[in-house]
Amino acid sequence: MSGTVLLRILLSAVPVLLLDRITKIWVVEAMDLRNLGRIEVIDPYFNLSMAWNRGINFGLMNMGMSGRWVLVAVALAIVLGLLVWVRRADGWAAPLGVGLVTGGALGNVWDRVQYGAVADFINMSCCGIANPFAFNVADAAIFAGVAVLILFVRERPAVSG
Half-sphere exposure of 16 toward its Cβ, with a 13 Å CA cutoff? Predict the structure, then answer.
């Protein structure tokens, strides 16, 4: 992997990881959302609502406390796979997308190690539809990173010899 690609990955991954950790320390711990459960901010559009995700997206495949290490291993394997794959891609999009996914995945891995589950707390609803789900900064970064990879990355063709 070239130094430029690695730098681009780090420039997107590190801020995501830091912002994710700062928001979780502030909201979950300092504001004590883990005990309060819910804080209405701009109801119903934006609220803080504590949700411990022991599964994958939206709590699917809830594996409980024992399954957290399986999900940690899966997340780390995906990050490693993306880091190997990104060496084949050209341009700015692949390192940006991989960095966003990596920063988000490492933020959620940190949660699983520290809390035993991912701390989700951002709840947004609109237009008379009450959204029962919560997410966090890491989740938003993973979503954005995957969107960048899908929409903007064009892999180099294989070299035939």
Answer: 30
Per-residue pLDDT at 157 exceeds 50: no
On the question of pLDDT at 159 being above 70, the answer is no
Q: How far apart (Å, rounded) are the C-alpha atoms in residues 137 and 17?
A: 9
Residue (of 139, 109, 107) closest to 124 by Cα position = 139
DSSP SS3 for 41: strand
- Terminal C-alpha separation, the chain: 22
* Residues 35-61 pLDDT 10s: 999 999 998 899 999 999 887 654 545
Task: Indicate the helix (H) or strand (E) that contains 33.
Answer: helix 33-36
Residue 47 backbone dihedrals phi, psi, to 5 degrees: -140, 160
DSSP string, 45-87: TEEEEEEEE-SSGGGTT--TTTTHHHHHHHHHHHHHHHHHHGG
What φ, ψ does residue 122 adopt, rounded to 5°? -85, 120
d(C-alpha 146, C-alpha 47), whole Å: 25
Point out the residues that are catalytic: 120, 139
Q: If you compute the radius of gyration of the chain from its CA atoms, what whole number of angstroms results?
A: 17
